[in-house]
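Service request form, structural biology core

Requester: graduate student, group of Dr. S.
Request type: structure prediction, single chain
Budget code: on file
Notes: please return the result as structure tokens.

Sequence provided:
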Amino acid sequence: MKKYQLPQDDLANICTMPMRDQRPMLERKRSFVPPHSLNPVRNEILALHGVRLTLFPDATVEDAAAIKAFLASMRREQDKLPNKLRAEAIVEFRRTFIQSAIEYPFRAHRITIDNSVSLTHSLAVESGGKGYIPYYDLRKSGKLTERARDFVFSMNFHLIVDALAEFREFGLIVLNYWEESAYVKGLTPYFFTGRPRYSYEELTDMIARTHELWVEVQEERHHREASRDAGPLFRQGRP
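Core staff response, request fulfilled:
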């Protein structure tokens, strides 16, 4: 049976819920391709911040040209508009608030040998003379709750700010996408207060429990579907 990894935003939202509420929420999650995917824009976060390519450090690309090339690379038509709107919001936020950006390979939190949690975009930015580690919350439906944002802040505090001397003075920020129309959209910033809500041990335990429950839900679903597809082993004979 193929096991599907729970998306990072779903993990943050669900594992901060009471245990009694987690199973019903996980049971509503289905392993299917949604109407559109935001992976294209997530994969272009560095480029949308103007982070230079290692092999071509002097190369520059205009924002409009970058977004046009980004859209042309998408194969599914239904992905283009949602990703375009978010890319435009990110670029506008960067132009207004961010002075510089760099790529940094932050460490992920490993759940299993082939499953890990990363709540960064390998990105550090400078805004107003201060460094920040941003996390983009790009969904309209299923956006991060307040507790989920605290989960993100706590994880990045323990793995980055508290663990890496060069990022000790950096702030943490979650940027929530909002949209009223194709022309009225933006990003709302939420800033880390400086005190993590969860300890690293609590985070580890929360993630492990939710991951274990998610595996159980998938296994139960697989058994039900396999039994339904197999049909009855014996047909009832006439008396």
